[in-house]
Amino acid sequence: MTSTVLRKDADEPRGDEEAEQPSTAPGWRARLTDTRVARLVELLALVPALAMVVEVSRAGKLQWLDYWYVLIRITNPDGSFKLGGIFTPQNEHPLMIPSLLYWLDAKLADGDNRVLGYLVIVIAAATVALLRSVLPRSLPPLVRAGLVVGASALIFSLQGMHMFVRSMSGSAWLTANLIVVISLILASRGKWWAAWGAGLLATASYGTAFALWPALAVLAVLRKERWAYRIAPLGIGVVVVGIWYILKPNTWIGGQPANDLGSLLFTFLTVVGKMWTADNAGFAVVAGALTLVLYVVLMSNKAAQDRALRFWWALGTYGILACGMIATARIDFGADFGLTSRYSSLAVMVAIPLLVLLAAVLYKGVRRNGQKIAVTVIGIGVVGFTLGLPTAADLRNAIKEHPLEAVAIRAGYGDALGPVLPKEHELEPDLRVLEHYPFNDSFSLGCGGPELGSTIDLSQATELPQPGTRSPTERVGMLNSVDDRGEADLITGWATGGTNRNADHVLCTVVVDGDDKVVGGGVSQLPRADVTNRYWGLPPDVGFKVLGPVTDDTRIVIIYESGDMRWLPPTVSETGDEQ
Fold first, then answer.
1. Residues β-bridged to residue 565
2. What percentage of the chain's residues is helix, strand, coil (to nearest 5)?
3. Residue 534, helix vs strand vs coil
4. Confidence grade of residue 255 (pLDDT, cut at 50, 70, 90)
5. Same structural domain for residues 148 and 297?
6. Are the C-beta atoms of residues 209 and 241 closer than 8 Å to each other?
7. In terms of domains, do 112 and 243 share one?
8. pLDDT tier at 470 (50, 70, 90 boundaries)?
């Protein structure tokens, strides 16, 4: 009887120290619960981060959207930092800390989107490291390692690739999330004043951090703090929201008004469940509802009420409330808007705490299943990472066309592209004084010689034949549209050297006026599935899109890799069947 009792006690974990010790079970199970093996498993967390480094390296130098509007507000005429500009919200969100990051990127790195993207990767990696530091020590090393890998896979998921390849976005959303995690860690350790200070920094980073204040109040309740600590975060939150409301521009942001409860719930659940579907809003709603159901079920579970899990309940509260804020603010944008890539950063803040809570409860129930829990968590992370492939494909295609905006800015045709860029007279002076890309020597049309303002000799060039009804064996091309945008025309078309793999491929496309001067350019080697489906054997990237002023004397010049040139008149073919 005595030996039985001793054996039972030996099988029971005795606090933090015992959880760290390797199991005495024989064979492979002992190795799987070994701390050294767990550390090796944790190295898998680097894989998603490295994958995102590759994506950012391919993202291009030019910045995106909100960055330009913010840069105008925070830059003085002499290129110095304009402090007052940081207090104006962008699309209803405070961007004080991101604004500083934008200006530093502009001042120190020519405004390179990739440099800021690498910084966002560091911010995301720091978030993973902080989450690792607060994993329950009662879990064995292998389970904690699995949770670290799963968290990394979700934070660096292809679902949220938008945050990294469009770094202006991630430097706001992910910075806010990082500071939120810091604030909750401080609060979970009873350092309330420091937690509130970090909370103020989080709300200065992005509006989603407003949800931190109720989460801090929940954490204070879970810790059974004095009423002052429970109420103070709510009071601070009210003051912060009040200040934001005063500063918020009185402009309409939204699509068609949708004020019904069904639309609100649909958008909310879609954002919560975004991680678990590629592009199906209905499935996201189901996944979001299931997520919330699991949270409610765990509330009554004794193991889930362990004091070591209080941080995770607070983080989950933040994530859910932030998703609700986004749903409320963006309900007017349509049923599928909750699937937007950047919203996955909030869905992750809901998913990761749930995984930790479930892992803790399952391990408490059946300890010998620790290895299975670790493998399952990693598998869930891999699924969340991989499901973002369709989102990533759309982003990669957008990246291929994005250099057209650089041409528009450099050539002075920015107004032709509409609100994706600020007005030329507002943006150009700041970019020039900062020597910001594309107003520096790193800008190029990529033609191996001809640039904007260059003169090229077309006397020996011939007109590019249009395709017939069969797959072309020689150089052919055509224009699909010439869209008058005022100061310039947006021209789309395609060209190829033929179906032979050794054929001369298109290097770039430029717009040339009647004096043989290059007055426009854009991007070539764009995917055109419609063309390759009709003409079998062509390479997939035969499309081009260029911007420039069009007259009767204009020529759209196709420059091949060999240096050979062909031209197209600025007219659209009706059928493309001319020989």
1. 559
2. 60, 10, 30
3. helix
4. low
5. yes
6. no
7. yes
8. confident
Q: Which of 153-167, 449-463, 498-512 has the highest mean pLDDT?
A: 153-167
**C-alpha torsion sign, points 407, 413, 415, 418:** negative
Instruction: List the Cα angle 202/338/150 in 5-degree steps.
Output: 65
| Residue 58 lies inside a defined structural domain of this protein | yes
Q: Is residue 206 in some structural domain? A: yes
Question: What is the total count of domains within the chain?
Answer: 2
How far is it, in rounded angstroms, from Cα 50 to Cα 48? 5
97 and 237 part of one domain: yes
CA-wise closest residue to 546 among 399, 405, 398, 442: 405
What is d(CA 383, CA 342) in angstroms, rounded to the nearest whole number? 18
Same domain, yes or no: 518 and 375: no
Q: Residue 465, by phi and psi: left (phi above 0), alpha (psi -120 to 50) or beta?
A: beta
Q: Are 183 and 195 in contact (CB under 8 A)?
A: yes
- Confirm whether 424 is domain-assigned: no
- How far, in whole angstroms, is CA 34 from its chain's centroid? 36
Q: What is the DSSP string of 554-567?
A: -EEEEEETTS-EEE
In this structure, the number of other CB atoms found within 10 A of the CB of residue 122 comes to 12
Instruction: Judge if 493 and 392 occupy the same domain.
Output: no
Contact 281, 336 (CB under 8 A): yes
What is the four-CA torsion angle of 547, 342, 325, 350, rounded to 10 degrees?
Answer: 170
Give yes or no: residues 370 and 508 share one domain: no
- Judge whether 191 lies within some domain: yes
Please count the other Cβ atoms lying within 10 Å of the Cβ belonging to residue 249: 10
Q: Which residues constitute the domain of residue 153?
A: 47-248+258-403
**C-alpha distances in Å from residue 224, one per residue of 188, 199, 215, 227, 521:** 11, 20, 14, 9, 64
Instruction: Kindly report, residue by residue over 14-65, the tens digit of the pLDDT.
Output: 334 334 444 444 454 555 457 888 899 999 999 999 999 999 999 999 999 8
Nearest CA to 489 among 480, 498, 497? 480
Q: Is the dihedral of CA 347, 350, 356, 358 positive or negative?
A: negative
Amino acid at position 263, single letter = S
